Automatic annotation (TrEMBL):
Domain (2Fe-2S ferredoxin-type): residue spans on this chain: 1-76
CDD domains named in the record: fer2 (cd00207)
InterPro entries linked: 2Fe-2S-bd, 2Fe-2S-bd_dom_sf, 2Fe-2S_ferredoxin-like_sf, 2Fe-2S_ferredoxin-type, 2Fe2S_fd_BS, Beta-grasp_dom_sf, Diverse_Oxidoreductases
Bias kind Low complexity: ranges: 164-179
PANTHER family for the chain: BLR6218 PROTEIN, OXIDOREDUCTASE WITH IRON-SULFUR SUBUNIT
The name this protein goes by in its record: (2Fe-2S)-binding protein
Keyword Iron: yes
Endpoints of the signal sequence: none
Disordered: annotated span: 156-179
Keyword set, alphabetical order: 2Fe-2S, Iron, Iron-sulfur, Metal-binding, Oxidoreductase
Classification lineage: Bacteria, Pseudomonadati, Pseudomonadota, Alphaproteobacteria, Sphingomonadales
Organism name: Parasphingorhabdus cellanae
A Pfam family recorded for this sequence: Fer2
Amino acid sequence: MTKFTVNNRPVEYRMDGDTPLLWALRDASNLTGTKYGCGTGDCGACMVEVDGEAIRSCLVTIDELEGRFITTIEALSRDRSHPVQQAWAAGNVPQCGFCQSGMIMAASVLLKKNKNPSNDEIDEAIANICRCGTYPRIREAIQRAARVARGEDVLSAAPPPGIDPADAADAVPALTPKK
C-alpha cells in the first residue's frame, strides 16, 4: 500500500505500486480534472504539482511518490479564485479546454518559482501541447496572472459560474426508464 498526500489529505492506495499516478487520481480518488492525453508524457494534460514541481502524472508511479505531497487542479482553488484561473477566464484562453487543467497547473508552479517570467521562460516552463494553438492567449494569461499576484493588476471578472461538486448530483435530473 502506498501512502502520500493528495490535495492536503492523506491517502493510502491499495493498488499495484506500478500504477501511474494519473490512474490512481482519476480511478481511485475520482479527481478527474487531471486529464489523460497521450499517456507518454508528451502532451502535459495530466500535469499535477508534486512537492512544488510540475510533474506529468502519467509518467510517475504511485510507489515513487511515497510520503510526497500532490496538488491537482481541484485543489488549486475551490472557488476558481487563483490568479492563473482568473486570468485564464478573463483572457478567454480555453478553446476546446482539454489541455487547460495541465496548463494551469504548470503555470501555477512556474509563478510560484518566478514572479515575473519572460515569454521565453514561459515557453520553457509550459511545454504542454495545446491542440487548438492558443499559445499567445496562454502567454498573456500567465503574464496577467503574474501581474495580479504581484499586485500590479486586478481582475474584475468573478470566478466562472459553476456547481459545487457536493451539489452536482442534484443538478442532473434522474433518468427514468421508459416502459
